[in-house]
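Bumping my old thread because nobody answered last time. Still need a sequence for this structure:
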């Protein structure tokens, strides 16, 4: 399983759901760029578990510990390396997964791919816990992009069969202010009414010990003209996805 992404800036993630820590290394970040640690932590807090009835009950602070790459609040040219310690692990709850994989998870495929040697506790390296280092890297990247006038924002577009307005249908001007307003919401939808219906659907599924799927709509503004190429695998959508 490859855990390295990117070309100009390379991201590597590591760790397992019930290991001592998870983390990431971000290589290729230019030196001298200021990193706002409060903004970075606020971005991580949006993802952190145990905050409400709509997220996993696992309680983790998700406070990153920098190992390299920052000096006096600025990037120093070395790879940015950071870990987030796992503190709320109950590995015994997952003992049965060694022989009884969960449907809808990567338990079985991980077992096959790694010939039975995978870490089955909480999904191991396939766990949603590993999205924390991805979010950390995204928070750094967003600060770099903002210095160039590029802003990224998103909202929940659908939960189960309940859909939110789209950016286009809502007729909103896409800009940094809109993206910040969405990020400040506990449940980021354009329509608060549809957001309330989505929350009700999540709670109903939770009572039934079930789950519901969802999707998001993401937008980028300020992207310079000329990104991408005519090649099928290097068009603008492919480049942004990578």
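Sorry it took so long. Here it is:
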């Amino acid at each position: 399983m490859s855990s390295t992404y990117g070309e100009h800036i390379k991201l590597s993630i590591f760790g397992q759901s019930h290991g001592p820590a998870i983390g990431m290394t971000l290589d290729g970040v230019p030196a001298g760029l200021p990193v706002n640690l409060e903004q970075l932590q606020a971005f991580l807090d949006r993802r952190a578990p145990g905050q409400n009835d709509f997220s996993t009950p696992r309680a983790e602070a998700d406070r990153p510990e920098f190992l390299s790459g920052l000096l006096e609040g600025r990037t120093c040219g070395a790879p940015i390396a950071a870990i987030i310690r796992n503190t709320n692990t109950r590995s015994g709850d997952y003992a049965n997964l060694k022989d009884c994989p969960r449907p809808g998870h990567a338990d079985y495929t991980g077992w096959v791919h790694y010939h039975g040697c995978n870490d089955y506790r909480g999904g191991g390296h396939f766990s949603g816990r590993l999205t924390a280092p991805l979010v950390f890297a995204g928070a750094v990247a967003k600060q770099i992009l903002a210095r160039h006038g590029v802003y990224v924002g998103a909202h929940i577009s659908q939960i189960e069969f309940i859909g939110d307005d789209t950016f286009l249908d809502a007729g909103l001007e896409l800009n940094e202010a809109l993206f910040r307003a969405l990020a400040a919401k506990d449940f980021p939808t354009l329509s608060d009414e549809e957001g309330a219906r989505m929350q009700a659907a999540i709670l109903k599924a939770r009572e039934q010990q079930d789950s519901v799927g969802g999707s998001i709509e993401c937008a980028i503004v300020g992207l310079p003209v000329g990104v991408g190429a005519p090649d099928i695998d290097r068009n603008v959508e492919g480049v942004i996805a990578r």
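The chain has a mean pLDDT of 89. Let me know if any region looks off to you.
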